[in-house]
Write a structure and sequence with these properties.
The protein is mainly alpha-helical. The protein has one domain. The protein is about 50% helix and about 10% strand. It is built from five helices and two strands; from the N terminus they run ββααααα. A two-stranded antiparallel sheet has the order 1-2. α1 runs antiparallel to α3 and α3 packs across α5. The relative contact order is 0.20.
Length: about 110
């Protein structure tokens, strides 16, 4: 069971329910991937409202790895979302909301 107070969410990817969590290590991975100097810069980037498919791939991959899955971004790219592109966006928004403390995903 997921614990939203720890920043965990659950999402369906690749035909099964998976846990995602942006741990400190996962956030450091995203800082490096996006060239962000710190967590504030990372939060600003995500708060811009713009999200590329590559951004979604990196965030979902980091979330899966943060929750303990051993998975590469190439493998994440092959995971289907039952809701298509909107499903990926919903996962990213929910994960970022859980991580950065928003009460409700926007």
């Amino acid at each position: 069971m997921v614990n939203r107070h720890r920043g965990e969410i659950e999402a369906e990817l690749g035909g099964r329910r998976r846990r995602l969590c942006l741990t400190l290590g996962a956030l450091a991975e995203l800082e490096a991937a996006f060239g962000a100097d710190d967590l504030s810069a990372l939060a600003e980037r995500f708060g811009s409202g713009r999200l590329s498919a590559r951004d979604a791939l990196r965030v979902i991959g980091a979330g899966l790895r943060g929750a303990g899955e051993t998975i590469t971004d190439e493998e994440v790219a092959q995971l289907a979302s039952g809701a298509g592109a909107a499903g990926y966006v919903r996962i990213v928004v929910e994960l970022l909301s859980a991580t950065f403390g928003a009460d409700e995903p926007r």
